[in-house]
Amino acid sequence: MFVAIEGIDGVGKSTIITKLKDILERAGYRVHTTAEPSQTPIGRLIRDWLLRSDSKIAHPSVFALLFTADRVQHYYGEVKPMLDNGYLVITERYMESTLVYQSTMGLPMDWLMELHKFVPRPDLTIILDAPIEVVIGRLRSRHKLEVFEADKEFLNRARELLLRRASLNNYPVINAVRDPDSVANDVYRLIIDALRRVV
Protein backbone atom coordinates (compact mmCIF):
# COMPACT_ATOMS: atom_id res chain seq x y z
CA MET A 1 0.00 0.00 0.00
CA PHE A 2 1.14 3.52 -0.84
CA VAL A 3 0.17 6.15 1.75
CA ALA A 4 0.65 9.91 1.47
CA ILE A 5 0.66 12.08 4.59
CA GLU A 6 -0.20 15.64 3.62
CA GLY A 7 -0.60 18.92 5.46
CA ILE A 8 0.71 22.46 5.36
CA ASP A 9 4.16 23.36 6.66
CA GLY A 10 4.57 23.06 10.43
CA VAL A 11 1.71 20.63 11.01
CA GLY A 12 4.02 17.85 12.24
CA LYS A 13 4.23 15.41 9.32
CA SER A 14 7.84 14.31 9.92
CA THR A 15 7.28 13.65 13.62
CA ILE A 16 4.13 11.63 13.02
CA ILE A 17 5.66 9.55 10.22
CA THR A 18 8.64 8.64 12.40
CA LYS A 19 6.33 7.45 15.18
CA LEU A 20 4.03 5.72 12.71
CA LYS A 21 6.87 3.69 11.21
CA ASP A 22 7.79 2.39 14.65
CA ILE A 23 4.18 1.42 15.47
CA LEU A 24 3.69 -0.37 12.15
CA GLU A 25 6.99 -2.24 12.34
CA ARG A 26 6.21 -3.41 15.88
CA ALA A 27 2.91 -4.69 14.45
CA GLY A 28 4.86 -6.79 11.93
CA TYR A 29 4.69 -4.65 8.78
CA ARG A 30 7.62 -3.93 6.50
CA VAL A 31 7.60 -0.14 6.16
CA HIS A 32 9.53 2.27 3.97
CA THR A 33 9.22 5.98 4.70
CA THR A 34 10.23 8.75 2.34
CA ALA A 35 9.56 12.44 1.68
CA GLU A 36 9.25 15.09 -0.98
CA PRO A 37 11.23 16.96 -2.10
CA SER A 38 13.10 13.68 -2.47
CA GLN A 39 16.78 12.83 -2.08
CA THR A 40 17.24 12.73 -5.87
CA PRO A 41 19.37 15.46 -7.50
CA ILE A 42 16.15 17.28 -8.45
CA GLY A 43 14.87 17.10 -4.88
CA ARG A 44 18.14 18.38 -3.44
CA LEU A 45 18.05 21.26 -5.92
CA ILE A 46 14.53 22.15 -4.74
CA ARG A 47 15.48 22.01 -1.05
CA ASP A 48 18.40 24.36 -1.65
CA TRP A 49 16.37 26.68 -3.85
CA LEU A 50 13.50 27.02 -1.35
CA LEU A 51 15.91 28.57 1.14
CA ARG A 52 17.08 31.24 -1.32
CA SER A 53 15.47 34.66 -1.09
CA ASP A 54 15.41 35.03 -4.89
CA SER A 55 13.16 31.98 -5.25
CA LYS A 56 10.25 34.25 -4.27
CA ILE A 57 10.40 36.03 -7.64
CA ALA A 58 10.15 32.86 -9.71
CA HIS A 59 7.00 32.26 -11.74
CA PRO A 60 4.67 29.77 -9.99
CA SER A 61 4.99 27.35 -12.94
CA VAL A 62 8.68 26.88 -12.10
CA PHE A 63 7.71 25.47 -8.69
CA ALA A 64 5.05 23.23 -10.22
CA LEU A 65 7.35 21.82 -12.89
CA LEU A 66 10.23 21.20 -10.49
CA PHE A 67 8.07 19.54 -7.83
CA THR A 68 6.34 17.36 -10.41
CA ALA A 69 9.60 16.32 -12.07
CA ASP A 70 10.94 15.34 -8.66
CA ARG A 71 7.72 13.43 -7.94
CA VAL A 72 7.92 11.36 -11.13
CA GLN A 73 11.55 10.45 -10.44
CA HIS A 74 10.76 9.77 -6.78
CA TYR A 75 7.86 7.47 -7.57
CA TYR A 76 9.54 5.36 -10.25
CA GLY A 77 13.00 5.40 -8.69
CA GLU A 78 12.08 4.74 -5.06
CA VAL A 79 8.39 4.32 -4.25
CA LYS A 80 7.40 1.77 -6.91
CA PRO A 81 10.42 -0.52 -6.36
CA MET A 82 9.64 -0.67 -2.64
CA LEU A 83 5.95 -1.37 -3.33
CA ASP A 84 6.95 -4.12 -5.75
CA ASN A 85 9.04 -5.68 -2.98
CA GLY A 86 6.07 -5.82 -0.63
CA TYR A 87 6.70 -2.77 1.52
CA LEU A 88 4.09 -0.43 2.91
CA VAL A 89 5.38 2.93 1.64
CA ILE A 90 4.58 6.17 3.46
CA THR A 91 5.56 9.48 1.92
CA GLU A 92 5.64 12.90 3.54
CA ARG A 93 3.98 15.00 0.83
CA TYR A 94 2.90 13.89 -2.62
CA MET A 95 0.67 15.33 -5.34
CA GLU A 96 -1.78 17.17 -3.06
CA SER A 97 1.04 19.45 -1.93
CA THR A 98 1.65 20.67 -5.47
CA LEU A 99 -2.04 20.84 -6.33
CA VAL A 100 -2.73 22.96 -3.25
CA TYR A 101 0.37 25.13 -2.99
CA GLN A 102 0.74 25.98 -6.66
CA SER A 103 -3.00 26.47 -7.10
CA THR A 104 -2.81 28.90 -4.18
CA MET A 105 -0.05 30.66 -6.13
CA GLY A 106 -2.55 31.17 -8.96
CA LEU A 107 -1.99 28.27 -11.35
CA PRO A 108 -5.03 26.49 -12.85
CA MET A 109 -5.93 23.22 -11.15
CA ASP A 110 -6.62 21.48 -14.48
CA TRP A 111 -3.06 22.13 -15.65
CA LEU A 112 -1.61 20.97 -12.34
CA MET A 113 -3.65 17.77 -12.57
CA GLU A 114 -2.41 17.20 -16.13
CA LEU A 115 1.20 17.40 -14.91
CA HIS A 116 0.51 14.39 -12.70
CA LYS A 117 -0.72 12.04 -15.45
CA PHE A 118 2.51 10.02 -15.27
CA VAL A 119 2.24 9.13 -11.58
CA PRO A 120 -0.57 7.24 -9.80
CA ARG A 121 -2.59 8.52 -6.89
CA PRO A 122 -1.72 7.04 -3.50
CA ASP A 123 -3.87 4.21 -2.18
CA LEU A 124 -4.57 6.38 0.87
CA THR A 125 -4.11 10.12 1.44
CA ILE A 126 -4.33 11.39 5.02
CA ILE A 127 -4.42 15.08 5.91
CA LEU A 128 -2.87 16.36 9.13
CA ASP A 129 -4.40 19.67 10.16
CA ALA A 130 -3.79 22.37 12.76
CA PRO A 131 -4.90 26.00 13.08
CA ILE A 132 -2.69 28.50 11.31
CA GLU A 133 -1.51 30.13 14.57
CA VAL A 134 -0.26 26.74 15.80
CA VAL A 135 1.77 25.98 12.68
CA ILE A 136 3.19 29.51 12.54
CA GLY A 137 4.38 29.13 16.14
CA ARG A 138 6.08 25.85 15.28
CA LEU A 139 7.70 27.25 12.14
CA ARG A 140 9.09 30.29 13.94
CA SER A 141 11.04 27.99 16.24
CA ARG A 142 13.13 26.86 13.25
CA HIS A 143 16.43 28.52 12.33
CA LYS A 144 15.60 29.48 8.74
CA LEU A 145 12.22 29.47 7.03
CA GLU A 146 11.63 28.28 3.48
CA VAL A 147 9.83 30.52 1.01
CA PHE A 148 6.36 29.07 1.65
CA GLU A 149 6.80 28.90 5.43
CA ALA A 150 7.40 32.63 5.85
CA ASP A 151 4.02 33.80 4.51
CA LYS A 152 1.21 33.37 7.03
CA GLU A 153 -1.56 34.49 4.66
CA PHE A 154 -0.35 32.12 1.95
CA LEU A 155 -0.28 29.19 4.38
CA ASN A 156 -3.77 30.02 5.58
CA ARG A 157 -5.14 30.00 2.01
CA ALA A 158 -3.31 26.76 1.28
CA ARG A 159 -4.78 25.18 4.42
CA GLU A 160 -8.31 26.22 3.42
CA LEU A 161 -7.87 24.75 -0.07
CA LEU A 162 -6.40 21.53 1.30
CA LEU A 163 -9.39 21.09 3.61
CA ARG A 164 -11.77 21.72 0.70
CA ARG A 165 -9.96 19.10 -1.37
CA ALA A 166 -10.09 16.69 1.57
CA SER A 167 -13.86 17.09 1.69
CA LEU A 168 -14.17 16.72 -2.09
CA ASN A 169 -12.01 13.58 -2.24
CA ASN A 170 -13.07 12.02 1.08
CA TYR A 171 -9.57 12.22 2.54
CA PRO A 172 -9.54 11.65 6.31
CA VAL A 173 -8.47 14.73 8.27
CA ILE A 174 -6.62 14.25 11.57
CA ASN A 175 -6.40 16.91 14.29
CA ALA A 176 -2.63 17.39 14.64
CA VAL A 177 -2.75 19.79 17.60
CA ARG A 178 -2.80 16.90 20.09
CA ASP A 179 0.21 15.01 21.42
CA PRO A 180 2.12 13.21 18.63
CA ASP A 181 1.47 9.72 20.02
CA SER A 182 -2.30 10.22 19.82
CA VAL A 183 -2.04 11.58 16.28
CA ALA A 184 0.21 8.71 15.17
CA ASN A 185 -2.17 6.13 16.66
CA ASP A 186 -5.12 7.68 14.79
CA VAL A 187 -3.17 7.53 11.52
CA TYR A 188 -2.15 3.95 12.28
CA ARG A 189 -5.79 2.91 12.68
CA LEU A 190 -6.70 4.52 9.34
CA ILE A 191 -3.93 2.60 7.59
CA ILE A 192 -4.86 -0.72 9.21
CA ASP A 193 -8.51 -0.25 8.23
CA ALA A 194 -7.46 0.51 4.65
CA LEU A 195 -5.18 -2.56 4.54
CA ARG A 196 -8.02 -4.78 5.74
CA ARG A 197 -10.25 -3.47 2.95
CA VAL A 198 -7.57 -4.28 0.38
CA VAL A 199 -7.08 -7.82 1.71
Automatic annotation (TrEMBL):
Q: Which CDD domains does the UniProt record give?
A: TMPK
Thymidylate kinase-like domain: from which residue to which, for each copy?
5-186
Extract the InterPro entries matched here. P-loop_NTPase (IPR027417), Thymidylate_kin-like_dom (IPR039430), Thymidylate_kin_CS (IPR018095), Thymidylate_kinase (IPR018094)
Assigned EC number: 2.7.4.9
Q: Its Gene Ontology molecular function terms?
A: kinase activity
Q: Quote the record's binding site residues for ATP.
A: 7-14
Catalysed reaction(s)? dTMP + ATP = dTDP + ADP
**Keyword Membrane recorded:** no
Query: Can you tell me where the transmembrane regions are?
Result: none
What are the protein's UniProt keywords? ATP-binding, Kinase, Nucleotide biosynthesis, Nucleotide-binding, Transferase
Q: Which Pfam families match?
A: Thymidylate_kin
Spell out the family assignment given in the record's similarity comment: Belongs to the thymidylate kinase family.
List the PANTHER family hit by this protein, alphabetically. Answer: THYMIDYLATE KINASE (PTHR10344), UMP-CMP KINASE 2, MITOCHONDRIAL (PTHR10344:SF4)
Q: What is this protein called?
A: Probable thymidylate kinase
From what organism does this protein derive? Vulcanisaeta souniana JCM 11219
Which gene is annotated as encoding this protein in its UniProt record? Answer: tmk
